[in-house]
Structures are given as structure tokens and as C-alpha cells.
Protein 1
Amino acid sequence: MQLNQLTETTDQILDTIQQYFVGDRQLLQKVLAASLANGHILFEDNPGLGKTLLAKVFARTTGCEWGRIQFTPDLMPSDITGTKVWRMNTGEFNLEKGPVFTHILLADEINRSPPKVQSSLLECMEERQVTIEGETHRLERPFFVIATQNPIELEGTYPLPEAQLDRFLIKLSTGYVKNEDLEAQILKNRSKWGQDDPTDQIQSVTTQNTFREIQDYIEQEIYVDDQIYLYISRIVRATRESPYVEVGASPRGGLSLYKVSKANAAINGRDYVIPDDVKLYAVDALAHRLIMKLEYALEDKITPRSIIEEVLDKIEAPKEILRR
């Protein structure tokens, strides 16, 4: 894998997704960067904005196997991870794998299941493995979760605990399309497809093995200068010192920002990270990890996003960095 091959492949992935999902290309680039960093993505937005469609189109475009779990209040942990079933013909227990045994797992409306079910994903997300009745099973690379949740309909939902939110590399919002032309394009696409779900029409751009090669290249070949390490560290530590925050970003938050910055550099054709890579993802990687003090959490004036943006304004970015 060479850098020019990597950027050509990632451009093809983004171009293909844009044929089916009408939206900001930068949003699609963020999804791709997080997945290439082998990280999990949480989409939180109003219903009907294409969160599920984007996840399905992305999975099909990358050529990886994917599975979907529709989270409901009656879901059980074994419905996610799988269980052992007694077979009369063989006289032994056989493992029935759950939908988590895949490469890209779409966890739709993840906050509609109780904490016991949500917690069954913790080991999968952090360790990339599943323990079923004392036996551990490794999950094949790549493995990452694309989860969605609806923030406005709270009845019958269970907010994700902070421990699980911290497992998501980035948290994104699709948002409404910017103008009436794009809104019209959504209707034209529906007319062209002849169905609401076009995923069976999508041709994969890459393969599972190629996707892994890109991930390995980003992990091993993208250079990060000491000044960038220090810059990320200062940003993360500044979130803990904010007077509005009860709990700031964890070290895992800093690692997430570091990983996704490397992936973004590669997508943009660079084998080194610059401060703009860090700035682009700071809010997405850190805001959902902050716990506001109660007196500020009830107000709309100060939000985790505004705190991160204030930190970025205060901390001076390195002006000179070494390149490999």
C-alpha cells in the first residue's frame, strides 16, 4: 500500500457514498477517518435525516461484512453476542454467533435498550472480543460499531452511560441539508432508485483485505511530530481545568483524537499530521466525553462543544513541525 493508492481508494469510497447519501462531504470524510482509525462512531440527530442509510451505504461501499441490531426494550444480551445451544443430534452445545460477529455493526437506536443490553457491547467495542459462557472469541478485523440514537424522543429510552460514551471515537450529527437544491436531490434519488433502501444496488469499492491494509498503513506510516503530541495533550488537559466541567476528557479521548487525526492526514494525501487535523476533530472526539457541572448542564449557553471551541482558541497551535 502506497500513499497515492490510499488516497485514490478513499476518494472512490467518498464519491460512491455521495451518489447515495446527500450531505456534506466533510461529514462523510469524518466517518471514513474514524473507521480507518478502527474507531466506533455515534450518530445523534433527529429522526429521518439519513443516519441509518449512511451507515448501511458506508458498510456496503467498503466491501466489509456488516450486521444490524435494532435495539428495543425487550432485547437480551445474548441477542447481540450469541449463545450456546444444545444439539440433540450431536449431544453437545454449539455456538450460535450473534450479529456482533461481523466487521461493521450498525447499532440502530442504541438508547432504546436497557443498560444490561448496552453493556454487552462494552467488551466488544473495547477489546474486540466476546466472552460467551466463559469462552472468549476474537472478533475479526476490521470491527467497529456505527450507532445511532434519537435525542428528542426520550420516553422509553435509556441514556448511554459515560463509560460507554467514552468508547466511541467520535460523535457526529448529520444535520439537515443546507439548501432546497439538495433537498430536491434527495427526492430525485428516491425516484431513481425505485425504493427507499438502495444498498443492494451498491458496488463495493474496496475489499476487507484492502481496508485492513489502509488501516495498517495509517497506524504504521503516518508520522506524528512531538509538537503534535504536546498539542493534543494540552487540549485534553484544558478540558479538565474548565470551571464548567465536572469531569473532563479522559486519556482515551486524547488517543481518539490522535488516531483520527492520523487517518485524516492520510485521506488528505499527507504522511504526517498537522494542527488542522487535530482542530477538525477536537469537538467530535472530545465533546461527548465531558460531564458538565449540574448548574451549567441545565443551561443552553454553555455546552461541551463551546468549551472545546474555547480551548482551541486559547491554546496556540504549533507553527513548525517536523515531517518524516
Protein 2
Amino acid sequence: MALIILFVVLFVLLLAGAPVAVALGVSSLIFILMDGLPSVVVLHNMVNGINSFPLIAVPFFIMAGHLMNSAGITTKIFAFARSIVGWMHGGLGHVNVGASVIFAGMSGAAVADAGGLGNIEIKAMREAGYDTDFSVGITAASSTIGPIIPPSLPLVVYGVIANTSIGQLFAAGLIPGMLMAFSLMFMVAVYAKIRNYPRDDRFVLSVFFHTLWHAILPLMTPLIIIGGILTGVFTPTEAAIAAVAYALFLGVFVYRTLDLKRILRVSIDTIDTTASIMMIVAASAIFAWILTANQVAEMFAGQLLSFTDNRVAILLIIMLIVLIVGCFMETLAAITILTPVLLPVAVQMGVDPVHFGIILILNLMIGLLTPPVGLVLYVLSKVSGVPFERCVIATAPFLVPLVLVLLLLTFFPQLSMWLPELLYR
């Protein structure tokens, strides 16, 4: 009975618009009081939930992304991507995807990608004669690559909750991220052929080297982060600190676009975002403890297995649950709630926790492009001036390649597991 009340209170608070951390904390507190446990258990588990060294990476990756945006580095990335793939039919659509792949190695967040590159990309595509709906749709879809290619804030949070190697998760995200990029570029090519979108300027070697020269230092950021982690020079947490130091070096000493005022504003934004994330993680820790102590995952697994013992069917059911939750809940909140329940079921079916983390995050990224929450759509609606409802319609066709990649990764785990097995196992 107490478990039923736990979930009822949680969903009522979420539907009422309460912050996720409040909904998780209040519902957990009510359960604990009903169960006769001392209320101090809540504080104890919340503190333990965020007392984790890997979580230190979260504020630093957030700050690195903010610094890159504030320093004007996104314009250099866009220009470099344009010099490489702009010559193709629908060139700026391909540039859109390519820039997101590059920026993914710096920020690790879809919303940061949409906010930082979105304004530049949509403006350039409109001026070149591309349909507004196409411009918004490909910008939204390409932003989901950010949390798959390392570094990735959602993968850090998942790794902490699932007690899984963050280094392996980062390695596992490289190939899936590139698959997402190629599938979206194929979609762009189809649109370009049907609508006869223009090429950008032809490929010019001198322009390529010119943009490379201006972008070479920002392009070193993903190499520093990913290379440092994969070679063992950095832990993911240390790599996040190195990324902030490097971003400050570029913004203050190289490009001289960061002054004390901007750094202070970036720091305040970082504190604000980090506080929200940590409150969710802390509140979810007590919620996860309740689920584990009451064997909710085992009960859920039993119900699923009583329905079917087919591995494919169970994986499809799990993915459908995640997809539905992702439509209504912010990504990090969904990770903290779903992981303790779904991961044991997936492991029981022979799914590696690293592989499950990749398909879970990709599934939730698709949720960022769907109403009613759709944070990426809200951001792009703001930067493009396009109504939210129109953004939803514009993005819908681009969900097809992303869902196909999700299914491909779900049923062919080696696509995500080959690299971590090569490097770590």
C-alpha cells in the first residue's frame, strides 16, 4: 500500500508542475514516515547520493560548455564544418550535423548545443533559402548527438547511479554518435534532392585551411577530453577540470573574448544549473533506495517475465516505457528514476550495463524532441521565433532516423560495446 502511495504522490506532484526534486523528495518522505522509519533517513541517503567523486565532473562539463558559448567559439566551429561539407547538396544541413558532432565533444548536453549553435545555424540556413521548418527540424535532431558522443552529462549521472565505468560509457558512445550523424546526413540528402536545396560554396582548400587555422585550438578540446580519458591520462572528472581550464585559456588569453564580467555570468549560470541537477540526484538517491529496499525491480522483472520471456520483446517493452517517460520528464530525472528499476531487468536478460546506458540515453534524447516537455524544442522555438507547435511538426520526420539507430543499437550491442571491450576489457 505504501508503495502505491509513493508512486501516486510522485505522479500527482509531477502533473501539478512541482519541481522533480521536490516531487521525489516529498513522495519518499511520505513513504518513510508511513513505514515507521526516522525522517533522518531521507537526509542521510540524499547526502550519500551526491557524495560521489565522478559527480564533480558535472559542474565542470557544464561550465566548459558555457565558456565555449560565451567565448564565441561556436562561430568558428560552424565555419570549419561549413568548409568541409558545405559543398554537398543541402550543404548547410550537413554543416548543421557536422557542427553538432564537433560541439558534442565540448559540451555534452543537447540543450547547450541547441542554444549555442542553433541561432547561428538557423539564421545561416534561412539566409541561404532553406525552409524554416527544415532548418529547425535538423537543428533539433542534430543536437541530440551531444549527450551520446563524450563527454556526456547524462552518461556521467547514469554511470554514478548504475555504478558503471564512466570511461567505458564514454567509449561506448563514440560509434553510436557517429551512426546518428550519418543517419541524419542521409535524411538531409533526401530532403536536398526532393526540394532541390542548394550547395554551399564549392570545396576550396585555402578556405578549409583558413577555417581550420581559426578553429584548430577549439577542435583540440574533444581530443584533450576524449584522448585523455581513453589513454588513462585523465579520469572523466579530471578531464572535465582540464576542459574548463582550456576553455578559460582560449577565451581569456587567445581570443580575448572573455572578461571578468562574462566569466562571473558563466559561473552563476553553472551554479544554477548544477544546483538543479544535484538536487534531482540527491532526491532520486532516497527514491532509488526505497525501490531497492522494497525489491521493486525484482517485482517488475517478475511481472515482465510472466508476460513474456522473449528477450527481444522485453527489450522493446523497456524501450517503449523509456520513450513514453522521456516525453513527459526531463532527462536527468528520468535517468535517476528509471535506472534502478529497469537496469536489473536488462541485466537479467543479458544486457551489459554499459550497453543499456547508451540505449537508455539515446531513447531519452528522442524524448527531448517530443511534446509536452521537449526542452530542445522550447529552446529552438525561442531562438528561431517559430511557435512550439510548429517546431514539433518540423522535427517529427527527423525522429525516424534516430529511432532506427536506437533499434539498431538495441539489437546489435557490438556497435556500442566494441570500443569499450577493445580499450578496457
